[in-house]
Design goal:
Length: 522
């Protein structure tokens, strides 16, 4: 990617814009935190929310450098970030910690103990973990933007659209979770990179990256569908386009067995990290007592008693999920601790959260409908029909490209599951870190309706011949940033573009303000 960045000015601009957006995010959250701690007027306008969230006691006295770091970066450690930091420091002590998969907290601990080892005399472990989260998430969010650009170039066959989508990723509505001590940045980087490698035909590398992603977030398991679809589509096209000999029964069975075995092997690799972690949780919480309860510090024991948290082998009583036929701690925690399930969130008091998720829900549904209307036959045949028309010789470019189909299906499945079965307010970060469709379709809408993004006032909006923005004809200079151009010319853009950019920018800013003050957000 480094070699490409020297050759591709669009990728250089994507990386540079991502770095600037990440720096601005950190600067704003530090400023908001400082104002909240020192400005009485700001506290009146946006008071801290007394959230009933996981907040373990600090067992060691902070030094002056710890206090300074907390003042600068404390806004990144709220809500679920407390779980990740606690797991990285103490391991899976409480049962409900097991809802958070291990690869991200392990990475935090590795950086804190290795790269930040020289700081151990100045900073306690938790402070180094928080600093590790800042460094890792900054790196992963920048690399995720680059991976999304490369993926867009391959799938969309339109560099200008891929460029615009990657820039929008740096202004993601889920921005605060890409910066805070959450696993979204790491997951987005792994998933976009895996998709890119799969499109390039690097199946084994793609499978490895998808496998790592399933060790970061549970919805990474859904990505097995990309392998199943890729193998199934290849086999279907081979059957339709092959000679008569390939349709002979012995050869057909051999081909089918090869496809099935490869798909099963890849899917097993993707499921392996999740399955291993469930086994680890079973051994830890359902196995014989190890006397670990006696070694737990008293403040943490008291927290378990006060909040009803279950400790490892507490009083020798095993949790109910241990006796299930398939003892999966993840689904048990989602069910019992957070009441996650089909239609469980459909209550009148949750209307504000549904409104919070409304923009991304409408955008996702609009993307799916637009694609289906543009490619009805391709959708009805699930993309398994081999096209012999002239259209196949000159593949469509942009969002309507046939290769986008599987990504639309993936995003729609995630959207439907999130809307009906999850806490609906998390939909924005759920989709924003898992699917490129949110950014591709937004770029498509902007590109279709904004003359400012065309090479000149008469050029067709889907033309691919000229570079996007203010790049030079030879491609040697750095291209202009079309997102910045639109934001600076907000009075001239169309109402649709104002709404779209307003959604991205407002959620980008509001997420910082509310999350840093422990107020509920997506």
């Amino acid at each position: 990617m480094e070699l490409v960045s020297r050759q591709d000015p669009h990728l250089r601009e994507v990386l540079w814009f991502a770095v600037r957006c990440r720096a601005l995010t950190l600067l704003l959250q530090a400023s908001l935190l400082f104002l909240n701690q020192n400005a009485a007027l700001f506290n009146l306008l946006i008071p801290d929310h007394a959230a009933d969230a996981f907040s373990p006691p600090r067992l060691s006295e902070p030094g002056r450098w710890d206090l300074l770091l907390e003042q600068l970066l404390g806004g990144l450690s709220h809500w679920d970030a407390e779980h990740f930091l606690f797991i990285a420091e103490r391991g899976y002590l409480y049962e409900h910690n097991c809802a958070f998969l291990p690869l991200y907290p392990l990475s935090l601990r590795a950086v804190a103990e290795a790269a930040l080892w020289p700081l151990q005399r100045l900073l306690r472990l938790r402070s180094r973990l928080l600093l590790s989260a800042l460094l890792l998430n900054s790196l992963f969010s920048v690399l995720a933007a680059a991976a999304l650009y490369e993926l867009g170039c391959v799938v969309l066959r339109c560099r200008r659209l891929a460029f615009l989508a990657a820039l929008l990723f740096s202004l993601s509505p889920a921005n605060v979770f890409m910066a805070a001590a959450y696993s979204e940045s790491m997951f987005a980087f792994l998933v976009f990179s895996a998709m890119w490698q799969l499109e390039k035909g690097q199946s084994w590398l793609s499978g490895f990256l998808f496998s790592l992603a399933s060790g970061v977030r549970a919805n990474g398991l859904v990505n097995a569908g990309f392998f199943l679809y890729s193998r199934g589509q290849s086999f279907a096209h081979q059957l339709q386009g092959g000679s008569g000999s390939i349709r002979k029964l012995p050869l057909l069975w051999r081909q089918l067995l090869s496809v099935v075995s490869a798909a099963v092997l890849m899917c097993a690799g993707i499921f392996l990290p999740f399955a291993l972690f469930q086994h680890y949780a079973y051994v830890r919480f359902c196995g014989p007592s190890t006397g670990l309860e006696q070694s737990v510090p008293k403040p943490l024991l008291q927290l378990a008693l006060d909040k009803g948290y279950r400790l490892v082998a507490m009083n020798g009583v095993k949790p109910p999920w241990c006796s299930q036929r398939f003892p999966v701690v993840y689904s048990y925690i989602q069910d019992v601790y957070w009441n996650v399930g089909f239609l469980r969130y459909f209550e009148l008091r949750q209307i504000p959260n549904f409104l919070l998720a409304l923009p991304v829900t409408l955008l996702g549904l609009w993307a799916a409908w637009t694609y289906i209307v543009a490619n009805p036959r391709h959708c009805l045949t699930l993309g398994l029909e081999r096209r012999k028309s002239e259209e196949e010789c000159k593949p469509r470019a942009g969002f309507y490209c046939f290769a986008v189909f599987v990504y639309v299906v993936h995003a729609t499945v995630l959207l439907a599951f999130g809307f009906f079965c999850m806490h609906v307010q998390v939909l924005t970060r759920f989709l924003g870190s898992s699917s490129p469709i949110l950014y591709w379709f937004s770029a498509h809408l902007l590109h279709e309706s904004e003359p400012l993004l065309w090479s000149d006032g008469t050029a067709a909006p889907r033309s691919e011949k000229s570079p996007l923005g203010k790049s030079d004809p030879g491609g040697k200079g750095t291209p202009g940033n079309p997102v910045v151009r639109l934001l600076l010319s907000c009075g001239l853009i169309t109402p649709r573009s104002k709404c779209l950019l307003g959604f991205f920018v407002s959620y980008w800013l509001l997420g910082l303000v509310l999350h840093c003050n422990f107020l509920p957000w997506t």
